[in-house]
Design brief:
10-stranded mixed sheet; single chain; Structural Genomics Hypothetical 15.5 Kd Protein In mrcA-pckA Intergenic Region, Chain A; 3 domains; 18 strands; alpha+beta; Pseudouridine synthase
Length: 325
């Protein structure tokens, strides 16, 4: 697709679709456009019935009518495309899944104007982006913290973004993480429930709060205990709140190893470690958290896509040293 040119779609209404809302009819017949995007271009005067502008999304279509949708050129994204290497796990015309390294920020923002995942994606697949809300940009469905590595899914077009965002909002995506925590949770498996909101004591932190916040549910299972000092834990998210795993594990007394924001209270656990284990952990400049599993329904084909990766080197390195405990 050439992002500098207008794209025109022409759709005739079959007689068996008479009476359907116009926005729904067009969205059902134009796979590249979501219903929300159809409504937006209608408001911009880009949908026509003959020579007449059709701006009422709730109007009922009639059999034999022919509608023309003239999509305006996609606006170039503001962030600059930058050639940053990406570990691509899955990619097609609708979706790209990358294994984000710890340290890579997802979105440009104050303090990180460039060098982000969005900059990298614009360079990697910018020519195949058909516009999210009319802008040639990758549709970030969910985020991983700067210090968290692992599988992250991005939509390439408006329809894919709407489908994947709905799956994320309805908690139907499969998402599992490896987490190295201080101490060993008892019992070794369970669930952590608690609304997460901004900490009243430190506005830079999130916390489990008694009032307000958003409901959050994390299921955990100890995969391996390293004496009483630490454990490798699998965490499965049923919701997707900011810093959810980091906050929930801290709330039950098992902060993530290496966590620069929530792990301070757990420093005493280092006393029983070997010098090599302490050195390996102290060399880590981010939390020991990795999104290793991702499952979703493909927005175009309806196929279940299930992706899984092995433990990354930084977790294996720490586990190998903790084995000596």
């Amino acid at each position: 697709m050439n992002n500098d040119t207008e794209i025109t779609y022409t759709v005739e209404v079959p007689h068996n679709k008479a009476g359907v809302r116009l926005d729904k009819f067009l969205a059902d017949h134009l796979e590249a456009l979501s219903r929300a995007r159809i409504q937006a271009v209608m408001a911009e005067g880009c949908v026509f019935l003959g020579d007449t502008v059709a701006q009422n999304p709730s109007a009922k279509v009639k059999g034999g009518e022919v509608y023309t949708v003239r999509m305006p050129p996609v606006i170039a994204a503001e962030p600059e495309a930058q050639d940053i290497p990406l570990d691509v796990v899955f990619e097609d015309e609708d979706v790209i899944v990358i294994d984000k390294p710890p340290g890579l920020v997802v979105h440009p923002a104050a303090g990180n104007a460039d060098g982000t995942l969005v900059n990298a994606l614009l360079a990697h697949c910018g020519s195949s982006l058909s516009g999210i809300g009319g802008v040639a940009r990758p549709g970030i469905v969910h985020r991983l913290d700067k210090g968290t590595g692992g599988l992250l899914i991005v939509a390439k077009n408006d329809a894919a973004h709407e489908s994947l965002s709905r799956q994320f909002a309805e908690h139907t995506m499969d998402r599992a993480y490896y987490a190295l925590v201080w101490g060993v949770p008892t019992p070794p498996s369970g669930k952590i429930e608690g609304n997460i909101g901004r900490s009243p004591k430190n506005r830079k932190k999130m916390a489990v709060v008694e009032r307000g916040g958003k409901y959050a549910l994390t299921r955990f299972k100890v995969l391996k205990a390293f004496g009483a000092a630490a454990a490798l834990v699998e965490c499965r998210l049923s919701t997707g709140r900011t810093h959810q795993i980091r906050v929930h594990m801290t709330s039950i007394g098992h902060a993530l190893i290496g966590d620069p924001l929530y792990g301070g209270a757990a420093r005493g656990n280092r006393a029983g470690l070997s010098e090599r284990a302490r050195a390996t952990i102290e060399a880590l400049d981010h939390q020991a958290l990795y999104a290793y599993e991702l499952g979703f329904i493909h927005p175009r084909t309806g196929e279940k896509i299930f992706l899984k990766r092995d433990k990354p080197k930084f977790i294996n390195d720490i586990c190998n040293e903790l084995e000596r405990v």
